[in-house]
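Submission sheet (multi-component)
Chains listed below:
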Amino acid sequence: MARVIGLRLLGSIGAVLGATILAFVIMRLLPGNPARLILGPLATQHAVNSLSQQIGLGRPIYVQYWRYISDFFQGNWGYSYSDGETVKKLIVERAPATIELALFSFVLAMLSAVALALLATYSHRPITDRIVRGASYIGFGTPPFFLALLLLIFFFKTFHLLPGPEGRLGVQAIPPPEVTGLYTVDALLAGQLHTFWEAVEHLILPSLALGISSWSFLVRLLRANLLEVSREPFITVARGKGLRRWTAFRRHALPNAFLPTLTAGGLVLGEFLAGSVLIERVFNWPGVGSLVFEAIIKQDYAIVQTFILLSAVLFVLVNLIVDLLYAVIDPRVRIPSVATA
Amino acid sequence: MGSGSLAIGAEDVAVLRPPEDGGGPAGAGVAARARRALRTVLADRKLAVPMIVLALMVLFAIFGPIVWDRNPDAQNLLGSLESPSLAHPLGTDQLGRDVLARVADGARISLLVASLVTIAGGLVGGLIGLLAGTIGGASDGVVMRLMDAILAFPPLILAMAVTVGLGVGLDTAAVGVSLVSVPWYARLLRSEALRIRSLPFIEAAHAMGATRGRIIARHVVPHMLPVLFIQMAAAFGYAVLALAALSFVGLGAQVPTPEWGAMITEGSTYSLTGQWWISICPGVALLITVTAVSMLSDRLRDLLDPRGQYARL
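Outcome: structure written.
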């Protein structure tokens, strides 16, 4: 077990190193002086010179690379030229909004995916199965940013059921006292039920849009797994021992069908990271995604560069955790001969 | 769906089958074979529906701009934001441009660029996978570590990074999306090459004195093609979606290019004031295309790989 963990850890460190080299190469491909690009067109020559010095332009390339990654891992992410703040402060400030949205979206996607996959496989009716599969195809083909618009047109513009693109709370609402930064949790902690509902209302549409591709992926995966597991001999045994069909399904098929969805963890995170850039802006959601969207438009490279590296590190980390969890839960993975077969 | 139709289905995707050695019975049988192929495609609904939808989309891309002969960039500020009518079946946008003409032009752009991206990614990734799987050694290690570095990024975010790094535009967005897709092919085809290499007929060819180059070209490559094509079909759908997403954030196609993603952005502010058609029309075109492609690629995988052993996207 220790060997598996060690190898996997080494692999992850290698992947992060490779990713930083790749990001470094890509960012240095930029035409023009990187210092000028980071500081923006309005910076003085003096500022450009001092930043050039600081990031080691003109020094050997490996020195530049070393500065690049040591700055990144020490949290010196530079300044946003359009905002004047440190990139770190901006990202930390905006992170809770994105985290809350992503968590909500994930829970929504997961619960509905489980429900639909169960519906498709348990009912034995081809028509339900077909509808669920069709929905997952359409969900897969729907770009999140397009779904965001559709949802706003239907639920906000036409039927006035849910709030429009006004961010996390209504215009006049006062945010709950900050504890975690997640408005729903903070509102509950402060006992402000009204604010809680308002935050939830504002979360629904963005999280639907953000979760659509992960949702359709999860539905397909869970459905396929459930079908496969429900044909396994141990289900027959469980039924033969007198368990009712639903009990056998719930106690034996579902947990086993869940296991492979763990591996989708990295994929879901990737969708959320990229998706937040795509959809937060549509809802005026004050998260990291809209920060990056604006930074792209303003060519604020310090922010974009940090976001790209951060996503890679998070992505590798989540994939590592998923793999290790999998090895803990499923002993077959631990035996190398089976794992490679 | 019985096993009989499954076999016919696989036969029917004739392009995906390895070319036969020595030509085979050519000429006379071609028309008959094409007709039979068409019949079997139509008999398989899961294959026929997405194929017909895609064929219609391609026809729309080719003939749309010819039949609906309007300049997609011609502005007419007096006739801006008009709702759909006979003169403008899909209405006009904020600058009075005809939305139908723009969606049709956008179909050309999306399908063409996504095809180029898919071919580029497939060629580069396929070659890398083939070389890593057949030659192996140190080059295998180095190249596959590079692939790991690419896979360390969420795909769309790396594509964004490349576009930011190379300068914004549809061409650099295409480079970014191709780069992201390279490791998918490389990994898949590497393991496929390794698998094929260990099969008995390769050993037989080797025993008969075939050179390594000949074995790779005549025996390994043809057997890798089905996997390559399945992956390309899936990657095509991803390419359409990713290019639109990059254009949506302003990294891909620039104003006034009628790219679907860019059109959705341009129209998004008007969606909530009642002029829904500017964004919805290109969005629906995008949705139809990507959904049809993913259904098609899934069906192809089922037909060509009944055991479901190849990696899924």
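Remark: DSSP finds 15 helices and no strands in chain A.
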